[in-house]
Each structure stands twice: as C-alpha cells, then as structure tokens.
Amino acid sequence: MTTHERSYDVIVAGLGAMGSATMYALARAQGPARRVLGIDRFSPPHGLGSSHGRTRIIREAYFEHPAYVPIVRRAFDLWRELEHEVGRPLYTKTRGITLGPENGTLVRGARASASTDALPIAPMPATMTSYCWSLTVTA
Questions:
Q1: What is the mean pLDDT of each run of 10 residues along the chain (139 residues)?
Q2: Which of 28, 45, 65, 116 is deepest in the core (most CB within 10 A)?
Q3: How far is CA 97 from the centre of its chain?
Q4: Can you tell me the distance from the alpha carbon of 78 to that of 29, in angstroms, rounded to the nearest whole number?
C-alpha cells in the first residue's frame, strides 16, 4: 500500500439522513475503533436527496406491519439522546391522523400496529372526522 492509499472498515455511500445517521452510530459505537469513510455525490447541504426539506414524519402505528413499532420507538429514544447531546430540540411530537375505509389496508394495518404494541388510538366515524376537521367526506 502506498502512502496515498487508505483502507477503511466501512464506507457509507450517501450522506443524507440514513447515511449520516449510520456514520454517527458508527462513530459512537462501543468496541474496537473503525475507520469509516462517508461519500456523497453532492456537497451537503443540498436539496437533491430523498430527505431534503424542513419537515419529516415518523408514525408509530405503521400500517405496513407491527414490526416497525419497536424500531420507531427506538428512533424516538435516539432523537431524545441527540437532542440532549446538542442541547436543543430537534424533534417535535405531534398527533397524526390515518384516514381511510374502516376495513381498508391503511386503517386495518394501523390498528394492527396499535393493538400489538398498546399504542393509543381514537377511532372515529367519518361524520365525526368531518366535524372535527371541517373535511368534506365522500363515499
């Protein structure tokens, strides 16, 4: 190996939200030190990635599968740790609303996630939803 060549234990391709989080986790990991290289096609910050912009959403009751709930709960813990480290809020928890037919994939899946992990939900009929949020409900 010449003096210009370097070896790395891990190379992270893409330094958007996921790549940066991976680099951060590797830097904080216990155990033997790792040589880590992060590369990105563009110079940060840029608006060309999948997670650019000022807002994001994280749902606890993912309709796709209840297996996401523990992962999301761990993500919330990590957000709180990061906020503590940087000394300022980075995450604002709000409520969400899942709309759809009662027996549709979206609502059924969200309910399954909520019931599996005892997440608080408040099912309501379409008429109540339209009353609470001034929505027009169509059949």
A1: 75 88 87 89 78 76 90 90 92 84 91 88 80 66
A2: 116
A3: 17
A4: 13
pLDDT, residue 11, reads 95
Using H for helix, E for strand and C for coil, what is the string for 10-63? EEEECCCHHHHHHHHHHHHCCCCCCCEEEECCCCCCCCCCCCCCCCCCCCCCCC
Query: What residues contact 108, with CB distance under 8 A and at least 6 apart?
Result: 63
Q: What is the pLDDT of residue 4?
A: 62
Q: What is the pTM of this model?
A: 0.68
Per-domain residue ranges for the chain?
A: 1-56, 58-139
Peptide bond connecting 66 to the previous residue in cis, omega within 30 degrees of 0:
no
